[in-house]
Design goal:
The protein has about 325 residues and is mainly alpha-helical. The chain has one domain. Helices cover about 75% and strands about 0% of the residues. The longest helix has about 35 residues. Pfam families: EamA. Keywords: Membrane, Transmembrane, Transmembrane helix.
Length: about 325
């Protein structure tokens, strides 16, 4: 799956004392994560195996091994253990959301285009705002409400492809489930700002691997497929997350999210160039509407964060 929408805890507003070089490094790391995440669809299309659960299993195994090694190198054995102990139920909840999204991503690609899956995931930040309002009555600005309305219109246009048989409705429904799962995880991390995402995502891939092991008819794959499965797990999932968590702490959260929109843009480009998979006209129109709404919202949020960080206290 593309984990382009992997939710992460909010990061601090920009610190004026930070150097320009540190900010540049943060931007490059987050851009690298978006590029890594954008390869998920193209890599999946290279696979010969037709058993989706075999793909989910091995992808999750390779991702889990990468993330575990990343935590051990970054935090040490004791630090890694502390991360898992401090997750609590919130971390388990995020892990469940990620396991659902990770599994559905592979299955969805069997029924619909990469563009449909990735562009629907671009709506995650606004879906999260909607869920927060419904469940917790969190204040939603007028600008965000407008963006949510536009996103709903874009989603409706994209999903209408399934009504005339252009793509399977199963694929679009799974893509929506992925977006809702990521949005739910985003809501959890916003309310539990101390939660570290890496151990929660590790737990999610372990859950996905366990579920896939019970669903898969066989764990066998060709040597060629194992190479792509390793890339799907270690590079697309693991490296993408490692780059994001390393870079997002150096730049404002809105800027990190803004750079992250590279993923739903690049993902369909890779499958077009490598596999000649061309999105339908409605996918392009609906996806374009979603991206424009998201860019408007993130740009507005970034300006708001910058204004808040530069506002001097009254003495």
């Amino acid at each position: 799956m593309s984990v382009s929408s992997v939710p992460l805890p909010p990061v601090a507003a920009p610190d004026p004392a930070k150097s320009a070089s540190e900010t540049a490094v943060g931007c490059l790391l987050v851009a690298g994560s978006a590029i890594a995440w954008s390869t998920g669809g193209a890599l999946t299309r290279f696979l010969d195996t037709t058993d989706n659960w075999t793909v989910v299993f091995w992808r999750s195994v390779f991702a889990g091994l990468f993330l575990l090694c990343f935590m051990l190198v970054r935090d040490g054995p004791r630090g890694t253990l502390r991360l898992f102990r401090s997750m609590g139920l919130a971390g388990v909840g995020v892990g469940i959301c990620f396991a659902i999204a990770s599994s559905c991503f592979i299955v969805a690609l069997s029924y619909t285009t990469v563009a449909n899956v990735l562009l629907l995931q671009a709506a995650v930040p606004l879906l999260a705002a909607l869920i927060s309002w419904v469940l917790f009555r969190e204040r939603v600005s007028l600008a965000t409400w407008g963006a949510i309305a536009v996103v709903i219109a874009g989603v409706a246009i994209m999903v209408s492809n399934s009504l005339d048989g252009a793509v399977s409705p199963i694929g679009d429904l799974l893509a929506l489930l992925i977006a809702i799962s990521f949005a739910s995880a985003t809501v959890i991390t916003r309310r539990k700002a101390h939660l570290r995402m890496t151990p929660a995502v590790f737990l999610g891939v372990v859950m996905a691997a366990c579920a896939a092991s019970m669903m898969s008819g066989s764990f066998s794959a060709s040597a060629r497929d194992f190479g792509f499965l390793f890339a799907l797990g270690a590079v697309n999932l693991g490296l993408g997350l490692a780059l994001f968590v390393s870079g997002a702490r150096l730049i404002p959260s809105a800027l990190a999210a803004l750079i992250g929109t590279l993923e739903p843009v690049l993902g369909p480009v890779w499958v077009w160039l490598l596999h000649n998979e061309v999105p339908t006209q409605r996918t392009i129109i609906g996806g374009g509407i979603i991206l424009c709404a998201l860019l408007f919202h993130l740009g507005w949020e970034y300006r708001r964060q910058r204004a808040a960080s530069t506002r001097k206290p009254v003495v």
